[in-house]
């Protein structure tokens, strides 16, 4: 079949950013199968290796871009920010180099760029080539909205004084009037443009309105007011998720079978699933607080905990809890949340985890750490009312037991369960044939097929 569109895809290789972008691309390939579109997926070797895990997909070719580290130089820092900094310093040259290679190999000029929204310079690359830029925001609409109001927020903080604004609400941001300044991401609260992450996101905010479309892995009905506001700010604002309900998920192979078998033996809605995503490990004191709460309350639990964090558990914890708990280094999270024995999810509030929890109707206990997570947890507790935050914001034995009781046993838990099930149904409706996310996805497909715009 003749290829008539060549889409260049630029991934941000940290946290859970590249995997949802690949999921989106796979869905675009499947839904456009007879229409001659090919995708070149530009990402670092390490991230490509992790998300493709040796699999090949028709019409998607992975290209490795330079991660910013010099040959023979191994990354020694434990801080992910350092790796991000090196990578960002190598952009956009590292991407431009492989884009040229892909054009030579396919014999076709790139006709549209689809990138992680963080990679704001894609706007300039697209402008130079006279082609559209479609940006993919991997987090929630609420955090995108908060970023879009950065200038107003900074101006208020400067005129009132940062300390005095902390408890003030974002009365001027549609759909976020109950959100306080102190719920906002650090990248908004600190106006320090010396920080590479703050600078990157600020530049993104300045470029996004030029994007032909801003795509989000969410559904309009979760935040109708925010959605309408963002529709007024962008040329096209397209909620196309939750992708796990509408797209083929990337395979994890057979890993995690053991914990799925274990879940099968547990009582309905009795198990606490615990995961802090791909980047975080809580401090030892908090690990101890959480472990003591689980042990004292004898709550059945499944904990996804990286091997290098096992040493942070209290001595003898594994032996003493082996009758009712299980720890794995990586869990098949979608299958876990789908399992009826899971009754609550203790989460760091990364957007993918929240969306997965909503999609399977599992109430959340929130312990946010950085970036958008604090704002997400505010929305979970106070706006969507589908979970609770911990008293004092950190894990302590008593605070965690209290949160577990309120979600698993009390009337609060019952209301939360009802709310999350209602939201789950809205998410399911959004991805039906005539649902909002499906319509938005079709619009996206049209846009990239005829790359001069919708
Ligand atoms: C960054 O998020 P994270 O990667 O830390 O966390 P999530 O967005 O929640 O995504 C974690 C994914 O990893 C999967 C899980 C999610 O899809 O199903 N997973 C799993 O399969 N098994 C495990 O044992 C543990 C996790 C960032 F830190 C957040 O603040 C952002 O919201 C997010 C999106 O931009 O990226």
From TrEMBL:
Annotated signal sequence range? 1-18
In alphabetical order, the GO MF annotations are: glycosyltransferase activity
Q: Does the keyword Transferase apply?
A: yes
- InterPro entries attached to this UniProt entry: UDP_glucos_trans, UDP_glycos_trans_CS
Query: What keywords does the record list, in alphabetical order?
Result: Glycosyltransferase, Signal, Transferase
Q: Which Pfam families match?
A: UDPGT
Which PROSITE patterns does the record cross-reference, listed alphabetically? UDPGT
Q: In the Enzyme Commission scheme, what number(s) does this protein have?
A: 2.4.1.-
Q: Which family does it belong to?
A: Belongs to the UDP-glycosyltransferase family.
Protein name listed in UniProt:
Glycosyltransferase
Annotated organism of origin: Forsythia ovata
């Amino acid at each position: 079949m003749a290829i008539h569109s060549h889409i260049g895809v630029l991934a941000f290789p940290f946290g859970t950013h590249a995997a949802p972008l690949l999921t989106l691309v796979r869905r675009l390939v499947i839904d456009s199968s007879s229409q001659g579109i090919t995708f070149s997926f530009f990402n670092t070797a390490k991230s490509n290796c992790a998300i493709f895990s040796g699999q090949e997909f028709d019409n998607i070719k992975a290209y490795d871009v330079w991660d910013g580290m010099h040959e023979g130089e191994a990354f020694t820092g434990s801080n992910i920010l350092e790796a991000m900094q090196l990578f960002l310093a190598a952009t956009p040259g590292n991407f431009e180099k492989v884009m040229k290679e892909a054009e030579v190999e396919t014999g076709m000029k790139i006709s549209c760029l689809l990138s992680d929204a963080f990679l704001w310079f894609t706007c300039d690359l697209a402008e130079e080539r006279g082609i559209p830029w479609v940006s993919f925001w991997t987090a929630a609409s609420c955090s995108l909205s908060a970023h879009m109001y950065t200038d107003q927020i900074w101006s208020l903080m400067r005129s009132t004084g940062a300390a005095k604004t902390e408890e003030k609400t974002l009365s001027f941001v549609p759909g976020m009037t109950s959100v306080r300044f102190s719920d906002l991401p650090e990248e908004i609260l600190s106006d320090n443009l010396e920080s590479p992450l703050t600078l990157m996101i600020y530049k993104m905010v300045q470029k996004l309105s030029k994007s032909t479309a801003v795509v989000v892995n969410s559904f309009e009905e979760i935040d109708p007011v925010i959605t309408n506001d963002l529709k007024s700010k962008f040329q096209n604002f397209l909620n196309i998720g939750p992708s796990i309900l509408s797209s083929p998920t990337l395979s994890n192979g057979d890993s995690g079978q053991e914990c799925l078998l274990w879940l099968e033996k547990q009582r309905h809605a009795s198990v606490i699933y615990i995961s802090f995503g791909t980047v975080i490990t809580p401090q030892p004191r908090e690990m101890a607080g959480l472990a003591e709460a689980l042990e004292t309350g004898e709550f059945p639990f499944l904990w996804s905990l990286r091997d290098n964090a096992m040493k942070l558990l209290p001595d003898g914890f594994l032996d003493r809890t082996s009758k009712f708990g299980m720890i794995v280094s990586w869990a098949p999270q979608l299958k876990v949340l789908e399992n009826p024995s899971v009754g609550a999810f203790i989460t760091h509030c990364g957007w993918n985890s929240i969306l997965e929890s909503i999609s399977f109707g599992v109430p959340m206990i929130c312990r946010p750490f950085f970036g958008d997570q604090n704002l997400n947890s505010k929305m979970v507790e106070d706006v969507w009312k589908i979970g609770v935050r911990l008293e004092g914001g950190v894990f302590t034995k008593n605070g965690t037991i209290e949160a577990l009781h309120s979600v698993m046993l009390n009337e609060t838990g019952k209301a939360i369960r009802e709310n999350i099930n209602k939201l789950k149904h809205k998410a399911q409706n959004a991805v039906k044939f005539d649902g909002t996310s499906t319509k938005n996805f079709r619009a996206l497909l049209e846009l990239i097929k005829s790359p001069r715009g919708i």
